[in-house]
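User: Assemble these into one structure.

Assistant: Restating your components, then the assembled model:
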Amino acid sequence: MTLTDQHEDADRLPTLDALGRRRVLVIAVAVIVVLAVGAAIGMLITTARTGAGPGGSAAPDAESIDVGFSQDMRVHHFQAITMAGIARDKTTDPEVHSIAFDIESTQLAQAGAMAGWLNVWGQAELPAAGKGYMAWMAGSGHQHSGAVLESGGVSTMPGMATTEELNKLKTLSGKELDIYFLQLMLRHHQGALPMAQYAASHAGVGYVRNLAAKMVASQSNEAGLMTKMLAARGAVPLPAPN
Amino acid sequence: MASGTKSKGAGAPKGKASAAKGKGVRSARAARTSVVSTKPKPWGTIIAVIAVLALAGGVFTYAFVQIHEKTKWVVSADNQDPSDQIPGVVKVKYEGAQHIDATQRVAYDKSPPFGGPHDGVWADCTGVVYTTAVRNENMVHALEHGTVWIAYNPDQIKDAALDKLKSKVEGQQYTMLSPYPGLDKPISLQSWGHQLKLDSADDTRIDDFVNSLRSNQYQTPEPGGRCDAADPAQFDVSKPPPFVAEPPGADAVKMDGTGAKKGEDQGVPTAPAVPPTDAVPPASGQPPASGAQPPPSQ
């Protein structure tokens, strides 16, 4: 078959009607192809942005160190806030009151800042149900104390007090309260340290690395202070978390 | 075949349409059958077009599913209430911030309640597993702060099922678990304005509900509200104010907040500590049973 044959075929083609229908079909198919390819490319770009690491302009994704650190450290902070609040309410020792109030207000503000980041990044403020903690630190080679879950996370973060320990803290008063609070909070700070250190050096976003680094510095200072306060009250720290 | 494809790809020249215009209808009709029968279909082009469409469709679907799976249960400006995707969730719009005091009760419209007036003191929601049923008026305030409250019927949920629920709550911020005597289903999940009643602790909708609504800044009247009980003297986690099974009396605060002794914005109580007289003759036909009103024990 030659081109001419084709043209003659076309010439012999019946009505404008039939011919027009065919052209409409060709154009419609072409438009659909262009749209489909365009939509696919657009969706791919969206995927890339959703999954983009924090190195790019896109927000950190759900598996990033930035999101994992922010969600987990909020939970870690909340317990420090709880313990500090108990001590601030119940202690009669001005020095203990002072450090408790300092820790409570600082960590509450930091938890709020991290919630703000997570909101802007389009991520949940808290770790997903059943996800466990610290899967974002998988590359650290750090051995966690908690049971490892299917998700790769652990069931509990280092330095966290148990419910029983929290309940015991609530029942104490006087010097006993002060010492137990300092012991629990010191261990809590020690547990947060490797998390904050890892984020300070590995998070993708500069402001996350900055806050993590500030946590390392300030909580190390507070840990030193609490160690001294324990000694001054004739007590020793609890075993450090592993 | 190849030439047929090529000429098809080039399309009919524009001039041909007008040329065809002059042809007689009859001869055209006569020609139609021969054209149809002799001209080969441009299969190459058709297959190429279908292939491109299939590829584009596949890529689109893959990318769409990837994005959807990643963000399905994540709260964001584009997904303000992921619980809309959970079958069975009951939603009610409640106004926040109407406070009562420890001596009052609220005539809640739902059981368990998931919004409405509440005590100024909130229940501790720092991942607390309550072993006794807790006063509704305190629990509802915790919901206002973004908490998910898992209530269970203690006659139906025990042992392994109860352990499963505990594992979802203990130590989990903005989450609390408590028995709820007389609950009409084994399990009921509450967040502010949302409720989901379930039969089994293994139901995957529990995690979906938690992820959708816990600390959800769009659904919570007070995002960032705290979970630590403010004052152990008013709310002691180890000995929380007890749940009251009897229906509230006619003097209870109504869902619209009428009858409340103190409002959020009223720094000073405007009325003396005497029940308002308008509470006496109720239109609801529920007589103020003398035993129904709990003594102001707090």
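Helices of chain A lie at 3-12, 16-50, 65-90, 94-120, 163-171, 174-202, 206-232.
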